[in-house]
């Protein structure tokens, strides 16, 4: 177990600074946009704006970096576990606010809301890794 954790820590530590900066900018922008969209559409939002930093940068960026070498399916599957935990804790701790009778509740039912959110947001890992790779490749060609 120690070797696995050390390997993952080294992967994070050895991530090029330009790649890390690209991840941070992309995920921060993405997080602000999705939080604003969720609030505007009255679906869900963070209780505090700075949760974009804790969720998107401090939680999702390291996970994305660790998953970037995996296939699309494996990134999605591992991402689903990560997002399931994040969604569960967000609603349980009430750090995320779900608007009552929102469009997703009406479409899928309130009982399926957090599952739907986890299924959707798990796509961030393969999509985010693809997007960051493309942007980083354009900005920092070798």
Automatic annotation (TrEMBL):
What residues form the membrane-spanning segments? 20-37, 49-67, 76-93, 113-132
Keyword list, A-Z: Membrane, Transmembrane, Transmembrane helix
Protein's name in the database: DUF2809 domain-containing protein
């Amino acid at each position: 177990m120690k070797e696995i954790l050390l390997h993952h820590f080294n992967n994070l530590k050895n991530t090029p600074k330009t790649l890390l900066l690209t991840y941070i900018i992309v995920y921060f922008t993405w997080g602000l946009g999705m939080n604003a969209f969720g609030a505007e559409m009255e679906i869900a939002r963070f209780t505090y704006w700075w949760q974009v930093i804790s969720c998107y940068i401090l939680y999702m960026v390291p996970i994305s970096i660790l998953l970037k070498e995996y296939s699309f399916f494996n990134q999605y599957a591992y991402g689903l576990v990560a997002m399931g935990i994040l969604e569960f804790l967000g609603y349980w701790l009430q750090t995320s606010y779900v608007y009552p009778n929102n469009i997703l509740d009406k479409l899928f039912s309130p009982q399926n809301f957090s599952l739907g959110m986890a299924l959707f947001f798990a796509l961030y890992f393969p999509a985010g890794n693809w997007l960051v790779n493309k942007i980083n490749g354009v900005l920092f060609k070798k």
